[in-house]
From TrEMBL:
<dbReference type="GO" id="GO:0016787">
    <property type="term" value="F:hydrolase activity"/>
</dbReference>
<keyword id="KW-0378">Hydrolase</keyword>
<dbReference type="Pfam" id="PF03831">
    <property type="entry name" value="YjdM"/>
</dbReference>
<comment type="similarity">
    <text>Belongs to the YjdM family.</text>
</comment>
<feature type="domain" description="Protein YjdM N-terminal">
    <location>
        <begin position="7"/>
        <end position="34"/>
    </location>
</feature>
<dbReference type="Pfam" id="PF08274">
    <property type="entry name" value="Zn_Ribbon_YjdM"/>
</dbReference>
<protein>
    <submittedName>
        <fullName>Phosphonoacetate hydrolase</fullName>
    </submittedName>
</protein>
<dbReference type="InterPro" id="IPR004624">
    <property type="entry name" value="YjdM"/>
</dbReference>
<feature type="domain" description="Protein YjdM C-terminal">
    <location>
        <begin position="47"/>
        <end position="117"/>
    </location>
</feature>
<dbReference type="InterPro" id="IPR013988">
    <property type="entry name" value="YjdM_C"/>
</dbReference>
<dbReference type="InterPro" id="IPR013987">
    <property type="entry name" value="YjdM_N"/>
</dbReference>
Length: 117
C-alpha cells in the first residue's frame, strides 16, 4: 500500500482513523485488526450498547433502566456506573457483560440495558 493511498475505514466501527502495521490494518478506537481486502468475519462477536456504540473490555458503562436481581430484593438503579466490564462473546442467555457492581457484587448484565459512559 503506498503512502498516497487512503486507508479504508474500520469494518467494525467505521472509524476513519485506521493505521497500518506490517500487513495488518488496525483501528485505534475499537482495537479491531484485519488484513486489507478481508471482510469482517464475525459481526456477531461485536457487542454494542443500547445506543449502538461498540463495547470493549475495560469500558465503563451506565445502566439505563432499573434492573431487579432475581432471587433478591436488590435493584440496580438507573444511572449506576459500572467500571471495568468484561465482555462474554458466546453468551447463550443474552447476558454478555460480566462485571462487579459496588454494593451488589459480581453479576452479568445484558448490553441492551447499558450505555457507554
Amino acid at each position: 500500500m503506498s503512502l498516497d493511498t487512503a486507508l479504508p475505514a474500520c469494518p467494525q466501527c467505521q472509524s476513519t482513523y485506521t493505521y497500518q502495521d506490517a500487513d495488518l490494518l488496525i483501528c485505534p478506537e475499537c482495537a479491531y485488526e484485519w488484513r486489507e481486502g478481508e471482510a469482517l468475519e464475525a459481526t456477531s462477536d461485536v457487542i454494542k450498547d443500547a445506543n449502538g456504540n461498540v463495547l470493549n473490555d475495560g469500558d465503563t458503562v451506565t445502566v439505563i433502566k432499573d434492573l431487579k436481581i432475581k432471587g433478591s430484593s436488590l435493584v440496580v438503579k438507573v444511572g449506576t456506573k459500572v467500571k471495568n466490564i468484561r465482555l462474554i462473546a458466546d453468551a447463550t442467555d443474552g447476558h454478555d457483560i460480566d462485571c462487579k457492581i459496588d454494593g451488589i457484587g459480581a453479576m452479568k448484565l445484558k448490553s441492551e440495558f447499558v450505555k457507554k459512559a
